[in-house]
Automatic annotation (TrEMBL), chain A:
InterPro entries: ARM-like, ARM-type_fold, PBS_lyase_HEAT
Protein name: HEAT repeat protein
Source organism superkingdom: Bacteria
Listed GO MF terms: oxidoreductase activity
Alphabetized Pfam families for the sequence: HEAT_2 (PF13646)
Keywords: Membrane, Transmembrane, Transmembrane helix
Keyword Magnesium: no
Automatic annotation (TrEMBL), chain B:
InterPro entries documented for this protein: CheY-like_superfamily, Sig_transdc_resp-reg_receiver, WalR-like
One Pfam entry name: Response_reg
Residues with 4-aspartylphosphate modification: 52
Chain ranges of the Response regulatory domain: 3-119
Gene Ontology MF: a single term: transcription cis-regulatory region binding
GO cellular component, one term: cytosol
Gene3D superfamilies, A to Z: 3.40.50.2300
Species, as recorded: Actinomycetospora cinnamomea
Keyword tags: DNA-binding, Phosphoprotein, Transcription, Transcription regulation, Two-component regulatory system
GO biological process terms held by the UniProt record: regulation of DNA-templated transcription
Protein name: Response regulator receiver domain-containing protein
UniProtKB/TrEMBL annotation, chain C:
Family membership noted in the UniProt record: Belongs to the glycosyltransferase 2 family.
Region feature (Disordered): 471-499
GO molecular function term, any single one: glycosyltransferase activity
Transmembrane recorded as keyword: yes
Keyword entries, A-Z: Glycosyltransferase, Membrane, Transferase, Transmembrane, Transmembrane helix
Transmembrane in keyword set: yes
Protein name in UniProt: Cellulose synthase/poly-beta-1,6-N-acetylglucosamine synthase-like glycosyltransferase
Species of origin: Actinomycetospora cinnamomea
Membrane-traversing stretches: 6-37, 348-368, 388-412
Amino acid sequence: MPPPVGPVVDRGVLVGAVAGLVVVLLALAVALLTGRWWRRRTEARRARRLAPGRPLLVALAAGDGDDAVLDRLATLPRAQWRALEPVAVSMLGKLRGGARAAIVALLERRGTAVRALHDSRRRRPTVRARAAHLLGVVGGPGATARLVVLLADRDPDVRAVAARALGRLRDPLAAQPLVRCLTGPGRALPHHVVMPALARVGPPARSALVASADHPDPAVRARVAEALGLIGAVDAAPRLVRTLQEDPSAEVRLRAARALGRLGTPSAVDPLLAATAAHEPPALRATAAHASGAIGARRAVPVLAALVDDPQHWVAHTAAAALAAIGPEGVAALRDLAHAADRPGAAAHAREALGKAPGVAA
Amino acid sequence: MATVLVADDDPDVRDVVVFKLQQSGHEVLVAEDGGAALDLARSSRPDLAVLDVMMPRMTGLDVCRELRADRATAGIPVILLTARAQEGDIESGFAWGADDYLTKPFSPRELDSRVRAVLARSRR
Amino acid sequence: MTVLDLVSVLVVAANWFVLAYFVALNTSYLGLIALAVREFRHHLRRRSWAELDDAYADPLTLGVSVVMPAYNEEATIVESVRAMLSLQHPRFEVVVVVDGSTDRTFEVMQRHFDLVEVPRVVPDDVPTRGVVRSVHAPRAAVPLVVVHTENGGKASANNVGINAARHPLVCMVDADCVLDPDALLALARPFADDPEHVVAAGGVVRAVNDSPVTAGRVAELRMPRRWLARVQVVEYLRAFLLGRSGWSAVGALVVISGAFGLFRRDTVVEVGGFDLDTLGEDAELVVRLHRHLRRERRRYRLVFLPEPVAWTEVPETVRVLGRQRRRWSRGLVQTLWRHRTMIGNPRYGAVGVLALPFYVLFELLAPVVEIGGLVALLLGLLLGAIDWTFAVLFFLVAVGYGVVLSLVALVVEEYSFHRYRGWRDLAAALGATVVENLGYRQVTAWWRLRGLADSLLRRRARWGQMTRKGFTATPHATGAGPVPDTGPVLGPTEVADAR
């Protein structure tokens, strides 16, 4: 009985396929073996190159800048230094004081910063990002200016690394460009990258931020409010109070409330308490309650105590925690609530908050 | 001259600390994680322990607590080395009987003087 | 033409169909791997300057509640919790939910961590089945909360943990997983980089049998000793690491493993948390998230990270593995059936058009075709419709392509993350690629087929730790979660926890 489907053709196709597969399989196996061999070799080589320099580096860091050690490190053969440089850079982030200064001196002698400035103009984004990182760690003349340029780099990773690096340098000159990243149209940078950098730079960023406080885009206004709190711009508090009271966007008001809590301005307590009113959005109410607790004004106690009975779980929870944060008077109010038999919900939240309040036995 | 136990899982930090303390004439015992640190502390009773807070398996806080819980090791002074600038950590560190703490990034020289101060205090 | 001839024609046709199916399946996988490679390159490039430590200096770092359900884990729970507590992250807590264990899980923890009962109010943001008996915390200031509930099953325990969580991000982990030390920092990173859109991030689960684990970390990664586990190492690599990375690249990630995933708490609450009646509750939740967010026309992202890794022990006995695969198969059926209107529906984007149809065609139906193909091949031989050489060639092509695929996965791992180092591991891995496709695959197909049959016959699920209790809380979204003083600008609302 002859098979109904043409057997010769089929077999030819199948044999070809099997042969092809075998070739591919062999190629893959070779790739696998070469990969492992190559990696083991490079790792061994790196370890060999690292061996002479690393103890010296440790001695330099622990010895607070011994000149003889520094000289020896500065004259290490290039191949050895190339293996050692990343270790030196990562140590820099872990050390402070004389130890740090000693490593910075070493990096200076080996021209790391100069090379980083040069590399920051290279074509490959990986190289630019690494250079930006180095500039942030090592600093030196021209680092801030160069990093500000990199904030507008065409590669998003490079932009982010540059922003973080600027935060690390804490140079007031970086304030304005960083604020622009937050508010301007330009190339996008996650604001979670910009904000910490701004917070490190601090008050010099204030005027640039306030200038954008009336931006038509609520997203920008929200970021500005958040940032004002983070940089500790205490004199911007009246402006934030106005935002809390008048801004049409609930999100912006929430950020303003949070910022006021961070700043700890006592004059903000009444507007914050007003924002806990029942008709406000729950998230804003909870945030405002938290903020008034953070400010720690006794005036807030009665309003917060009433909130502990709120039907919204997180509003009640936050109000109780805020009372605990206010101190003895808040704790006293919580104690009263904890025994309120007619309000079991409030009592439970109060007991929880008392359990966490410092130095209080529930 | 004293025997100091150093526990940190970061080799860079560990090596620098060990080098610094040896330079100051201390004998140094080294552990790479919390469990090893606790074992070493129990077996060789150092005069002082420098513990990183964030270590695998047992944090420095855990080790500190275990040391305090045992009569034999309760007297070993502890200096915590912490990367978290978190008040909660420092608070609970002190609550569990740590004698001093240092935050990373740290200065080896400062560490050395704190070690000296804590040793002097504990010998009094 | 006799009846026999007709049957022969059909059998031969069936064989060609099966071959075509295999080629299509493996080729789609190859496509996924290509996508994954692009992702990896990007990931590796960023890794060198990821500066994860910056989270410590960042005042906006979102807090993470690590939710760890535990059921009868007295032997290992202390070690697991300690390992979790020593993870790196500036603001996190560990929430252990003791799901009505019948052993001394709770007591062991109570003694070791010096737990005392605390008056914590646990909201019912998502429905649960196990009633909360009590909440405990250590006397000392350790960020640990232990919730003791009546037995309600894994999904319910997860939901209890979500309710008790006090941070805007919740991380679901299995108690028996070993995480890389920077796992939380790395998994939380996408939420910091793109706070307005990222709602969930999944990590990889990989097999770790027989590798020495010291101090809650994998000290040295080795290939397992048993072939059954070795094969799963390769399988996890291909299906989880590469497959999911590929799906993530096209925005169609539909599975985030319950063993290691990070979610925005508010979004999970919005969709009602884990489903209490599904076997594959982790996949179901992710599909439901897609469905909800697509319907609301929100811009969102679910991301999968090839690193960090959650290392887990995979089943080493045929019996346990068989049970696991049957359960997975049933879970898949349930999830796909529940969300059947999404399948092929362009309204749900790449998830509807690509991922779900792929799962139907190449996951759900694969065991049917695979077993059917074997039967057809044998039948063809019996009937004389195909001869031996033909059958062997045929089989070699079908299996060979599979081996190629597994090898490609190994090569990708070798050139990207290279977690394995020794030559002996390499030899074992090479052997495993063959065994996986010749033997293992056919056996698992049988289990999956049985799981499929179970679902069709609507047999009741037997899921070790689940004893059904009548109590069900009603879901209700409050529109607010814990809104700590940090959080994404213009993200959905969250609420504050003053600690």
